[in-house]
Amino acid sequence: MWNWPLTQRRLAERSLLVRALLATTSALSFAACSPDSGTAEDRADAFRSPLGYMAPEPQRPGSPAAGYDALVNKAYVTCGIPYAAYKRSGSFPAAERRLPGRTGRNAELPYNLTAHVSRSGVEVVAFNCLTCHAAEFNGQLIVGLGNESLDFTRDARTVAEAAGTNVAGTAETAEWRKWADRMAAIAPYIKTDTIGVNPAVNLTWALFAHRDARTLAWSDKLLIEPPPEKPLPVSVPPWWRMKKKNTMFYTAAGRGDHARAMILASTLCTDSVEEARAIDAYAPDIRAYIASLEPPKYPFDIDRKLADQGRGVFLQHCSACHGTYGADATYPNLVVGLDVVGTDPALARTAVNGEEDRFFRWMAQSFYGKNSRLAPAPGYVAPPLDGVWATAPYLHNGSVPTIAALLESAKRPKYWVRSVESPGFDPRALGWKHTELLYGKAGAADADERKRIYDTTLPGYSNQGHTFGDVLATAERAAVLEYLKTL
Amino acid sequence: MTTITKALIAGLLVIALIGERTAFAQWNSQPVAVPIGEALAALLQKGAAGYASTDRAWRYTFPRDYGVHPDHRTELWHFSGSVVSRQGRRFGFQVGFFRIGVIPPGAPAGPSAWATRNLYWAQFALDDAASNRFHASERIERAAMDLSGASSSPPRVWVGNWVMEVDSADAPGAVLRLDAAIDEVRIALALRSAKPPVAPAVGGGRSSGSGQPNPFHVYLMTRLVATGTVHIGTERFEVEGRAWLDRAWGLVPLPWGAVVWDRFLVQLDDGRELMALRLRRRDGGGNPVITGMLVAHDGSSRMLDDGAVDIELLERDGTRFPSRWWLRVPGEGIELGLTAYVAERKTRLSMRSWAGAVDVGGTSNGRPIRGNGYVELAANATTAGGT
After folding, report:
1. Which residues from chain A sit within 8 angstroms of residue B213, using beta carbons?
2. Quick check: A208 pLDDT over 60?
3. Beta-bridge partners for B303
4. Which residues contact A400 (CB under 8 A, 6 or more apart)?
5. Are A454 and A446 in contact (CB under 8 A)?
6. Residue A215 DSSP one-character state
7. Using 50, 70 and 90 to split pLDDT, how confident is the model at A163?
8. Cis peptide before A378 (omega within 30 of 0)
């Protein structure tokens, strides 16, 4: 008979519950990786920012220590799966996957789940910010590193309904149903066609469309026109950039009070201004924690001499937009126009061509828009490059798997699949090990392969632009790569 | 195949157990001292302390994994299929065994001869198409006093005279023997698998970063070649046909939740199998979701995308019983009609569940195709689902 070895790699990857919760997660982190926050103005021009320098705006002070505690223990997302059902699924994390500082029930949960007792007395497990904003690098879990492994290709509705198979009891069922109904409502707008990319922007808009802007009350029926069903892909940026950035999000959309905009991450379940205000009360602490984060140190060897040479090249070719690093670090906070940066225009274009103004208006009318505003610019923020070696894939849509390819556009793969080998980090090219294919999604053998192929010919997925590295000599490029390891 | 599917698969298998158990009791008008399903649910909610976990990869090995895994809390053996006599008389059947750990392996079991570490719950149902009759029964016994039990060497599970065992006389592990009887009805089959088992975890994929362990291990034998006999009263039929085996151990999910599931198993004459799973809220709310799996001639399997499978109930027998469905997979060019051997179930109460063999006929990429199948609808399916 058969002696059938199962690698079970995939088995281990996602339990029913995790998948179920994933969709919620996107709801969580969309605030940080999607559009923005906005002010109270109701004129279209209030929903735009100019290109160029983005000036700082006042931020409410907070305690980083209190912020970490809130981040990993407080229930800013208040709907999810009853703990009894979660427990029945048998999903508990191995010890090494737990985070320090987790209290009570949370100490036994995976780092990306937080428990709380609902008003109806049911203990509920919900996704927290770290589902999208923590990831492993070189075997270490790094809080703040964007999780680029999430799979939004499945219908979130299937995932939520499947989770219901473990739910029993009237009160528990009511709690699960609240979550599952919302998942069903947003599911059409958050299904991506590529594993790893994040639908955060669309998720945010879908939630806005189901809520009354002034009361924040949930409506099963759409209150404003929802976003298109095909999400534009975004890569989840690292949190440690926030200490330098005056705006949130790729298109500079998050202006004003960052803490207020961040709590958009709770809009899957926050059903009243009163609830939003309670979360907002500690949001400045979480912002302070995020702004205190330092990038990880490069864990492998660095050729210091080569890196020094690279620093010179970097100063000459890169610093004008990305700043300088070291003792006298500077960061210019620039939004670069699409005509200059040349990267995939879809995200910025749809943000400024009026297609999303109804969402910016919703924001402005809501509690979330009292101190913050969504005001995108027709371009992309040139980000700080601290810890950039850890943050593959590159560009706002995650279309380029390595920095080497980013700096030499001719080497960017048109069709590629992330390697499943471990470790998946390529220290020579600085980024993901991957396989270049001769065919795109249309040529995939089956749906499983199709989901894994990053196809840069699709709308929103282009790897074009940012060709500034093409002018470098091969040796210069190698030197810059080495220098980036020191950041 | 993904873990979610794994959960669904094994869960779906079990639906027949609780759902039909209740129905059987009602149909047969047999007094039941305690609502067994609820009692078991309460028992199972005690948790799995003292039992082995399933968070490590499992290397499926046969015939070993036909046998019991006593370190795990619960375990399922579930056979379903269709056979036909030389005279053309068709029968559908299911035989299921469900083990429930009561006392963990390391804990003292007590001195009484009645003391037991496990309960075994078994069911047997037979559709007789020619007489339009449905026979069903169930048993629940403790694993003491030789009332029920299981072993791993040789692989065997039994409840009274209902038995599944590996035939030791044949090539090792090559033939399973299944035997069950209700009053004047008996089925005895030899089963040989025509394909390797289907198990989750085949295929690529990368970690979500959450590192969740798996609550149970599971595999399916989607095409067992069946030969044997069916007895109905004094009549004896030499039969042959196909069967399907679902196996799971660990924390096997039971259909007690807010969402239940229906399962459509199809074995096509061209060598492929199709499984469709439909999730439904027990309260009738929301919209059902359907997912599926296709198994190729060589045993390789792949998931069908969400939304790739469509199920439509065509008619009911009278007003209560489902009897015909369309099962469509447009992306694969598959369009099948499923017709129940026996739609009627003898119950005076509202239908609580439905499970039975179906004839399959339709087209695959425009060419005619036939097959057989087994449909399992969860409790309330005939009123809440079915479309």
Report:
1. 12, 15, 90-92, 94
2. yes
3. B293
4. A393, A394, A406, A412, A431, A463
5. no
6. T
7. confident
8. no
Per-residue pLDDT tens digits for A331-369 = 999 999 999 999 999 999 999 999 999 999 999 999 999
A482: its two tokens: 């080495």
Closest partner residue to A1 (CB to CB) among B11, B172, B216 is B172
What is the average pLDDT across B227-234?
Answer: 96
CB A73 within 8 A of CB A276: no
For Cα atoms A423, A429, A435, give the angle at the middle one, nearest 5 degrees: 65
Contact A363, A373 (CB under 8 A): yes
> How far is Cα of residue B354 from the mean position of the Cα atoms in its chain?
13
Question: Does the distance separating the beta carbons of B257 and A195 come in below 8 Å?
Answer: no
If you search the block for the tokens 């199948």, which residue do you land on? B373
The whole-angstrom distance between B111's CA and the closest CA on chain A is 31
Nearest CA to B340 out of B357, B320, B360, B361 is that of B357
Question: Which range has highest mean pLDDT (A27-31, A39-43, B101-105, B360-364)?
Answer: B360-364
Interface contact flag, B210 A446, Cβ < 8 Å: no
Residue A362 CA to residue B10 CA, distance in Å, equals: 45
User: Residues A470-473: contacts with CB within 8 Å, 24+ apart?
Assistant: A470/A407, A470/A408, A470/A409, A470/A410, A471/A317, A472/A313, A472/A317, A472/A407, A472/A408
For residue B284, list chain A residues with Cβ-Cβ distance below 8 A: none
Amino acid identity of A50?
A: P
Lookup: tokens for A78: 């208040």
Interface test with A, best of B40, B212, B252, B287 (most A CBs within 10 A): B212
Report chain A residues whose CB lies below 8 A from the CB of B4: 14-16, 19-20, 154, 158-159, 162
Report whether pLDDT(B279) > 80: yes
Distance from C-alpha of A13 to C-alpha of B49, rounded to nearest angstrom: 24
Q: Residues of B with CB below 8 A from A8's CB?
A: 56-58, 201, 214
Tell me the backbone φ, ψ of residue A233, rounded to 5 degrees: -75, 140
Gap from A20 CA to chain B (nearest CA, Å): 9
- In tens, the pLDDT along A277-319 reads 999 999 999 999 999 999 999 999 999 999 999 999 999 999 9
> For residue A419, what are its two tokens?
């390697």
Q: Between B47, B216, B259, which is nearest A164 by CB?
A: B259
Nearest 5°: phi and psi at A381? -70, 130
* Omega cis (within 30) before A228: no
- Local structure of A434: helix, strand or coil: strand
Cα distances from B272 to residues B222, B297, B341, B355, in angstroms, run 9, 5, 21, 22
Q: Summarize the confidence of residues B143-161 as an average pLDDT.
A: 88
pTM of the complete model: 0.83
Task: Indicate the helix (H) or strand (E) that contains B384.
Answer: helix B381-384
In terms of pLDDT, which residue wins out, A480 or B386? A480
Instruction: State whether residue A160 is helix, strand or coil.
Output: helix
Angle at alpha carbon of residue A294, lines to A288 and A299, rounded to 5°: 155
Helix (H, G, I), strand (E, B) or coil at A149: coil
Query: Residue holding tokens 């694993």?
Result: B143
Indicate if the pLDDT at residue B62 is higher than 90.
no
CA-CA distance, B100 to B250, in Å (whole number)?
10
Q: What angle do CA A134, A137, A143 make, to 5 degrees?
A: 25
Domain boundaries along the sequence of chain A: 13-36+61-292
| Residue B188 burial (10 A CB sphere; 0-12, 13-18, 19+) | middle
Beta strands (DSSP E) in A144-214 are: none
The domains of chain B, with CATH numbers, are 3-250 (2.40.370.10), 259-384 (2.40.370.10)
Instruction: Please report, for residues B81, B268, B362, B371, the alpha-carbon distance to residue B368 in angstroms, rounded to integers and kept in the order given.
Output: 22, 11, 6, 11
Rg (CA), chain A: 22
